[in-house]
Structure formats: C-alpha cells, structure tokens
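Lab meeting, action items carried over

1. Structure of the three-component assembly. Owner: GW. Status: complete.
Input record:
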Amino acid sequence: MRVHHDQLEVRTNGKGLYEITDEVQSKIDRSGVRNGTVTLFVQHTSCSIVIMENADPTARRDLEEFFNRLVSEDTDYFTHGSEGSDDMPSHIRMVLTRTSETVPIADGKMQLGTWQGIFLFEHRRAPHRRKLALTIIGE
Amino acid sequence: MRVHHDQLEVRTNGKGLYEITDEVQSKIDRSGVRNGTVTLFVQHTSCSIVIMENADPTARRDLEEFFNRLVSEDTDYFTHGSEGSDDMPSHIRMVLTRTSETVPIADGKMQLGTWQGIFLFEHRRAPHRRKLALTIIGE
Amino acid sequence: MRVHHDQLEVRTNGKGLYEITDEVQSKIDRSGVRNGTVTLFVQHTSCSIVIMENADPTARRDLEEFFNRLVSEDTDYFTHGSEGSDDMPSHIRMVLTRTSETVPIADGKMQLGTWQGIFLFEHRRAPHRRKLALTIIGE
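Predicted assembly:
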C-alpha cells in the first residue's frame, strides 16, 4: 500500500463542463497503482468536479442552463461581487456540486459506469487555469 | 493495510430513496477490515448516493417532493430527453446530490450518527438494477 | 501506511458557516501522517461540510441567504416538521451540500487552494454540538 500524489491543470474558456476522464486515467497508469482509489480535489472555490453523462452533449448544455437559472447572475440581494456578476453565483454553484470525488481503481482502471465521465465544471466566464490535486491510494 | 473491492446491486421501482445501510455493513463485516474507510460509488448518471434521516419516512417524502419541484419534468428548455421527461431531470438531480460518499469504519462498524442511513436515491420512474462499487481501505 | 481516527466537536449558534480549517490541520499535525488523505464525515443529517471562500465574509452571507430562499421555511407542502419550521429545510440543505469531504495531505499539510477554507454548515436555528469524524489514511 502506498500514496501517490499528482496534479492536473485544466485550461477553461468560459462556463461549462470540460471532460478530464482520459487525463485522470493516464495519471493512474503512470502511478502503477492497480487496486485502490483516486481522490480528485479541485483547489478553487469557483469551479467544481462532477461525474456526468458523457455521451450526449445536449445533456451538458441543459445542465449548464439549469444552473444559470437556479443561481442567476441578476440576483439582486448578492453583495459579494467585486469580480463581476458571475463571482457569487460561481461560489454557490460550487457548493451545490462537489469539491472532491473519490473513484475506485481495480486492475489499474477507474471503475466508472458505461456513461460516466469526469468533468471539471467551470463557473466563471473568463479563461482560467484550474488545478486539481490527485491522490491515488492503493497497491 | 489493504484494499478490498466489492459490489452491491440495488433493485429500484421508481423515484425515491432506498435504504442500503445494512447491506453495506454486511459487506464490511465480510471484508474483515476493522479500521479504515468505505467508499461507495454509484456507477450511473441518473441516480445518487445520499446519507439521510432514517427514522421518519415523511422526511424522505418531503425531500422527494422538493426535488420534483426544483427540477421539474415540465421544464420547457430541456433538449436532452430521448428517454422521456424524467431523463434530463435525473442527471441534474444526480449532479445536485452525490456520486460517491466515504464513511469511516472503526472497530468494524461504520461511524454513522444516530439518525443517519445510507440511501440510493433513484431519479428514474422505470424499474432499474443499480450497481454500486464499494472500496474498503484499512486494516 | 496506517489509519488514524479522530473526532472534532463544533459548537454552533444558529444557521451559517463555521470555519474549522485550523482545527482539522491541528488534528493532522498530531497524527504524524505526512502523506495521504483526511476524510471529514459529519455525523448528523441537519448540518453539512463545505469547502468555501474564506476571505470575504459577504460571500458566506450571500450563500446563507441563497439557501434560505431555495429551501424556504414557509414551504407549505412539507409534512415533516415536528422539530419546527427549520427541521425539514435542514435535511434538504444537507442533501444539497455534503456529508463527507476528502482532502489530500502532502508534507503534513492539507493541499487546499489559496482561498479555500473548510466549514461546518449549520442548518438549524438552535445551538448545537456537532460531531465530525476524521479519518486520516497515509504514511
């Protein structure tokens, strides 16, 4: 049993879902761990990690539109907004989704279901470089 | 320290919460692990894992009703819906809840609070067989 | 590799976010674990764990106000409410956020981003003593 730390940088270009499944699997391949778990941890408070349907892009567009309406940039009672109208909504969207996700690894592969993909969910309009810490624990 | 993988199948019969606390504890018993963690990972994008009040069934009914209203099947802007009106809402309900949950194990028992139960949260109307991957890490 | 269990008690005094980042780091320091993960698990169904912006208190106030409106205490269809009007909303707010969170530890320190703090998110009006189980796995 051992601990293997790694990092992933994701360049985003506006709100939406960015798939990182293959990049995470590559990091696991390189770690040599065959059985255990990988914990993905996003080191920001204005983007999230989600596992989502990876086959049909319309599902991701509908999801994005749902969040745009649930946490509107036009909310009149928000006081925190020094970075713009997408600032406070980005923190709320992050709290409603996930900062960390733990995925099982068996025989060297993440045990995702057929339609599951891992996505960075960006909540800001401007381009960003997002950092994810990966911790692989296993043997 | 070691890694123990297992699986749980849950048969669902429509939207709602299905308690699996005892089934998960049985798997831990059989693993022989006394101290560590169990990670539950649901291998689907239209159901979730949640930890919820397990005493009063009215709490679960109110929760279900809240989600039916928050993510309505009548939403007019959804474009992804080849599998029916509960298709897109099921993905959003999943993103708003959890795909994985990690619970501590001490002296062979999950360290749940008095009122906590583990539930599969089904978001589809039709009956399904749901697969959960369990990864027990410990000694 | 080893497992280290610990506990944290947090006294809350009404709805809102209570930062516990330093208390968690102190527990890690005392465990002697230098590389691995810490899993925080809240043993209640009416409060949550979240990682949130820790610099500007207005962000936390806006977040609290958003949840007060999203899950209103005046909801007429709630039937579960033996403990008061904040009872059922507290369970829903918990399901919409997180019961467990796993954070990487490297060189003895949690790998949080610059603006990330760990918070207990209290959903009840009355004062409570909240219990968190900490499981540190590593070497």
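2. GW to write a short summary for the group page. Key points so far: Helices of chain B lie at 21-31, 57-70, 87-96. The longest strand of chain B covers residues 2-13.
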